[in-house]
Design a protein that fits this description.
Blueprint: H1 29-44, H2 58-61, H3 66-75, H4 78-87, H5 90-94, H6 103-109, H7 116-128, H8 142-147, H9 153-160, H10 174-178, H11 185-192, H12 207-213, H13 217-225, H14 240-250, H15 256-270, H16 280-289
Pfam families: Ank_2
Organism: Lysobacter silvisoli
Keywords: ANK repeat, Repeat
Length: about 300
């Protein structure tokens, strides 16, 4: 039975609803939201039994014109979901219900065990205008949660329905989340659907740097084989080569991780990468010579 991927820590700091329509909130809103989070990330999306938790009934979350759609979602009635979603305007389709829960995230909760019906419901909502990048407080967006699932089928359903693979919610490309996975299925799917492998965030980092920082060394190799550019410097003067050197030094001598990092270094040096890399201070001095202020955020793409 699928389980959520374990979170990974970075290795280096490198509404318009009428109040009469809104369902009453349970006491302890923050605790309830966390409870919904456990459900969303465990019991429902990934089919894991979290202390017998169940998805709250549609009537507890939605009201008014959203309620029939939420009920159809809960029952897995794909054709009815398509019809009802098409009848709502986009703002209504994306308007949060109680506890800031959206219809799309509610559908994600009901996508038990990668069942085709649940995936079709997700696609129907996105095709009708539901926003997979809209965040639910403390839970994230439907796209973000799909990228943390073990199976890429949820992400594929969102992409098939219109999610932009090159999107960067909060100026962070989806590909960055994808390369945190142990394997490359999510990253491969995003690249296949049009994500740019060398797209940077406002710090000037790319997915390649992100994979290295998260010690996804097989993914680093995989990205390099697919055209990821290693010769760049972020806004703080940290180059990919500099980060690679840092990671090599911090490993235990002779460890598998260090051997892998050294092999990556040797291949890149053979391709012309400067080694040893310039220091951070030297890179910042070069930035100033080019008229670039170190630490200044890049414009959003």
């Amino acid at each position: 039975m699928p389980t959520p991927r374990a979170p990974t820590r970075c290795c280096r700091p490198g509404d318009g609803m009428n109040e009469r329509e809104r369902p009453p909130l349970a006491a302890g809103a923050q605790g309830m939201r966390r409870w919904l989070g456990l459900i969303a990330l465990g019991a429902s999306l990934l089919g894991v039994n979290v202390a017998g938790a169940r998805v709250p009934a549609a009537e507890r979350i939605f009201a008014g014109e959203q309620l029939p759609l939420a009920q159809a979602i809960a029952r897995g009635r794909v054709d009815e979901v398509r019809r009802l979603a098409a009848a709502l305007d986009v703002p209504t389709l994306n308007r949060p219900g109680a506890q800031d829960m959206t219809l799309l995230f509610f559908a994600l909760q009901h996508a038990f065990g990668e069942q085709p019906t649940g995936l079709q419901v997700l696609g129907a909502l996105v095709a009708a205008g539901a926003d997979p990048l809209q965040p639910v407080p403390e839970l994230g967006s439907a796209a973000g949660v799909s990228l943390r699932a073990k199976s890429p089928l949820y992400l594929r359903a969102l992409l098939d329905a219109g999610l932009n693979a090159d999107a960067a919610p909060g100026d962070r490309p989806l590909l960055f989340d994808a390369v945190e996975a142990q394997g490359t299925e999510f990253a491969a799917l995003l690249l296949e659907r049009g994500a740019r492998i060398n797209r940077h965030d406002r710090l000037g980092n790319t997915a390649l740097m992100h994979a290295l920082t998260y010690q996804r060394l097989d993914t680093v190799d995989w990205l390099l084989e697919r055209g990821a550019e290693p010769e760049f410097v972020n806004i703080n003067g940290v180059s990919f080569a500099g980060q690679l050197q840092f990671q090599i030094v911090r490993q235990q001598d002779g460890s598998p991780a260090q051997r892998k990092l050294l092999a990556i270094r040797d291949r890149l040096v053979a391709r012309g990468l400067r080694w040893p890399p310039l220091s951070r201070d030297s890179e910042q001095a070069r930035m100033r010579e080019r008229g670039q202020e170190p630490g200044r955020l890049l414009p959003a793409e």
